[in-house]
């Protein structure tokens, strides 16, 4: 496997620093807190950490609003702490992938302060400004967080574009100085030893010439004019040449509304190594899109994953994920977080860690953390949820919070952001203070300490699966083949290497299910399963229990 770049062999673990571990009792996670928990990552066997933004930030969007790209957010620690973290990770052979937010900055960034106060100055053209009637925004584009994507700035007497929060003005990528500034920042951290970047909303950098109105009936109005925009390949090609070329790093582009064909242009011979597609986590959108719950069925999930698995050519490589800091907890969403929490969390782990691609595991996923409860809108911290829900209430689409609470508790990004549950002490061992977002009530049952001491446990299964993946070449680079595509319960596929084949058999349902593994009989041996008492070799018809997953190896 030595010819593969490291990131094709890697399992990546995402840390959302605010919610990982608090070392100083202020209720907010921090870098020294991460350092205290490095052995947890080491035990898990992961190869790289993707660290959500730790740069200086007023934290309106928890760090995705950067006010100084070269400083560590004071609430998270110091540059010296960050250096200790890097060293601690590297000592354990774990790489560090930083998060780069290049589409926008915080409105408190010095560039934006200058830009709004001195239009004719050096930074005047760093953002997307339009003059005009203070009552009428320049076009009908919408912010991802609800409402117009434009804000009128009294100081400059002009509108600025913000595809996200009003505190997150979009940078003007047409300006070559802006592009250079970002590459400089990226190179600055690379010189400090980071191993790559996850690039926030990086397919939104190029906005269509003239900023034309979008189709008003679109799900994200205007997106056809800024998703994969006209100059995006030029910008990312330049970024590749200026930053990534000749380094042993990884680049992962986060890309809303990405389709498979465009994805294949971004990777392979394209400017990036990897992309995050979202089709499979939009499967359960309802009529009102994200702020509604739709029915989803297993054949549909399989069909989306299958298409992205097979990609367009041999070189194709993708990311594998069910969770991140923007997604609800997968066991609550796709599994059963009550009766079959262990079983369904491990079935999901099996999928993420045995498909073709680079798996990304989000903090807490490895212990089967679940969605939380948010009794009122005051309990919701996430700017995206708060703004969108307010808009739905103000627009009369829903009567009040109670009418949409079930959707918030299903979908809100805060579900992923409740503190990691380390043990059953107060606040789950996350903090000695008052946590910035309440700990999920289920922490006495769901926590790392308990998962370490109990058998079976979600954590132990993740650990074994990660180990197995690392020692089983077909699980990394083997060909992928789906069986039973239309079956409503079974998720079965093979990963075929040069002289070994792994068969993955999952009963992704809460019912018992028989499957005929006759063709495998005798010659197959069990590699791993998430249930006890599994025969070493399948013998014709096999009875699978709810959410049972098994991996067999055959010639
Ligand atoms: O997210 C981009 C993005 O598309 C999300 O806003 C998404 O629409 C939403 O989270 C629902 O899934 C990235 C970051 O991951 C997110 O945390 C930031 O808020 C956003 O960019 C702005 O930087």
UniProtKB/TrEMBL annotation:
GO molecular function: alpha-amylase activity
Record GO biological process: oligosaccharide catabolic process
The keyword Hydrolase belongs to this UniProt entry's keyword annotation: yes
First and last residue of the signal peptide: none
Bias (Basic and acidic residues): 545-555
Keywords: Glycosidase, Hydrolase
Domain Glycosyl hydrolase family 13 catalytic: 14-417
Family matches, as Pfam families: Alpha-amylase (PF00128), Malt_amylase_C (PF16657)
Keyword ATP-binding in record: no
Region annotation (Disordered) ranges: 417-436, 529-555
Family that this chain belongs to: Belongs to the glycosyl hydrolase 13 family.
Matching NCBIfam families: PRK10933.1 (NF008183)
UniProt name for this protein: Oligo-1,6-glucosidase
Organism: Halobellus salinus
């Amino acid at each position: 496997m030595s010819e593969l770049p490291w990131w094709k062999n890697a399992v990546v673990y995402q840390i959302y620093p605010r919610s990982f571990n608090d070392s100083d009792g202020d209720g907010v996670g921090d870098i020294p807190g991460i350092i205290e928990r490095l052995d947890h990552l080491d035990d898990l066997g992961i190869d790289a950490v993707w660290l959500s933004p730790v740069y200086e930030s007023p934290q309106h969007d928890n760090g995705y609003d950067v006010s100084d790209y070269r400083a560590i957010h004071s609430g998270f620690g110091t540059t010296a702490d960050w250096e200790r973290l890097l060293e601690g990770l590297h000592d354990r052979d774990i790489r560090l992938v930083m998060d780069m937010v290049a589409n926008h900055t915080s409105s408190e960034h010095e560039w934006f302060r200058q830009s709004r106060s001195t239009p004719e100055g050096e930074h005047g053209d760093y953002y997307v400004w339009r003059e005009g009637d203070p009552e009428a925004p320049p076009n009908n584009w919408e912010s991802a967080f609800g409402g117009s994507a434009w804000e009128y700035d009294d100081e400059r007497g002009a509108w600025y574009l913000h595809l996200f929060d009003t505190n997150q003005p979009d940078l003007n990528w047409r300006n070559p100085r802006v592009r250079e500034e970002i590459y400089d920042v990226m190179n600055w951290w690379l010189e400090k030893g980071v191993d790559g970047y996850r690039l926030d909303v990086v397919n939104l950098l190029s906005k269509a010439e003239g900023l034309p109105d979008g189709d008003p009936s679109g799900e994200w109005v205007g997106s056809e004019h800024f998703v994969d925009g006209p100059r995006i390949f030029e910008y990312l090609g330049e970024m590749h040449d200026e930053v990534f070329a000749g380094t042993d790093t990884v680049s992962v582009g986060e890309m809303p509304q990405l389709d498979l064909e465009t994805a294949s242009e971004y990777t392979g011979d394209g400017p990036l190594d990897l992309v995050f597609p979202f089709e499979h986590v939009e499967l359960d959108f309802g009529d009102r899109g994200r702020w509604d719950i739709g029915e989803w069925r297993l054949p549909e999930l399989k069909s989306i994953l299958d298409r992205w698995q097979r990609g367009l050519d041999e070189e194709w490589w993708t990311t594998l994920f069910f969770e991140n800091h923007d997604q609800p907890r997968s066991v609550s969403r796709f599994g059963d977080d009550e009766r079959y929490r262990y079983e369904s969390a491990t079935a999901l782990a099996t999928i993420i860690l045995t498909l073709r691609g680079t798996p990304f595991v989000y903090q807490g996923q490895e212990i089967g953390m679940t969605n939380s409860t948010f009794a009122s809108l005051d309990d919701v911290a996430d700017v995206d949820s708060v703004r969108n829900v307010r808009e739905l209430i103000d627009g009369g689409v829903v009567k009040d919070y109670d009418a949409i609470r079930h959707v918030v508790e299903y979908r809100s990004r805060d579900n992923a952001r409740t503190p990691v549950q380390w043990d059953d002490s107060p606040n789950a061992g996350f903090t000695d203070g008052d946590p910035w977002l309440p700990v999920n009530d289920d922490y006495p049952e769901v926590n790392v300490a308990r998962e370490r001491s109990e058998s079976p446990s979600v954590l132990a299964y993740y650990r074994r699966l990660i180990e197995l993946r690392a020692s089983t070449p077909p699980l990394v680079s083997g060909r992928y083949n789906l069986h039973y595509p239309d079956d409503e319960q079974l998720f079965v596929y093979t990963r075929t290497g040069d002289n070994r084949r792994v068969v993955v058999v999952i009963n992704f349902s809460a019912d018992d299910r028989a499957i005929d593994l006759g063709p495998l009989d005798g010659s197959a041996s069990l590699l791993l399963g998430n249930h006890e008492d599994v025969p070493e070799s399948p013998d014709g018809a096999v009875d699978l229990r709810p959410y049972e997953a098994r991996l067999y190896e055959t010639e």
